[in-house]
Amino acid sequence: MRTAYYFVVELRRALFYRPSETRRAFDALYTAAEDPWRYGAEPTAAAHHPVALRLLDRHLPPGSTAFEVGCGEGVFTSLLSSRCEVVIASDVSTVALDRLRRRDLANVKPMVWDARTTPPGGSFDVVVCMDVLSYVHRPASQRSTARNIARLVAPGGLLLVSEKNQDELVESAWWARLLRRGARNVAGNLHRIDRELERVAEDTGGDHLTVVYRRGDQT
Ligand SMILES: C[S@@+](CC[C@H](N)C(=O)[O-])C[C@H]1O[C@@H](n2cnc3c(N)ncnc32)[C@H](O)[C@@H]1O
Question: Domains in the chain and their CATH numbers?
Fold first, then answer.
């Protein structure tokens, strides 16, 4: 019964998803309040950040270049910037990026980019995408967005994707695979979307599934 409820909720989201509303919706959310995800207020809200850092510290060489997708106000960006030579920090929301600018991080370059559109030029030693893909509610569009993001990874480079774990009924449902819902489907199988990505590490800490992929050297 509960799985039928989740199915109907997710199906409605997929059917009524309005891609053109995304920027306005996130700008409105950030305008309504600073720190809408409550990273500063609730210790558990950003528990996926230290998990991601641990994985990066294990795999990322010093002096790396980074690209962050959906950086928001830059809470994780500031942590990433202390480990990388340069970080391009992108988001669909200009309000969020203005808050990131206020952090005045010398090696961070903010960029407005909707990840569903053609990726900017260049490739990076590490691409980070946390809690972004699950906001793309059409399966085909989520797949193409994941491909756009993967295209930014340099040969031999890393892609870190993290998504919040959903109820086990969603994570294990047959329909969640079709609708691309649940952390396992959204973050966990990008090597099926881009065959040159190899899954090299994962961590289920901090209420999230965080997966690190490496692009083959021969691209
Ligand atoms: C839950 S916040 C995650 C912030 C940060 N990645 C983290 O985990 O701390 C989701 C962010 O993704 C951004 N976002 C949503 N859809 C996007 C898209 N299509 N392209 C780029 N950014 C997007 C939102 O504006 C928001 O800042």
Answer: 2-215 (3.40.50.150)
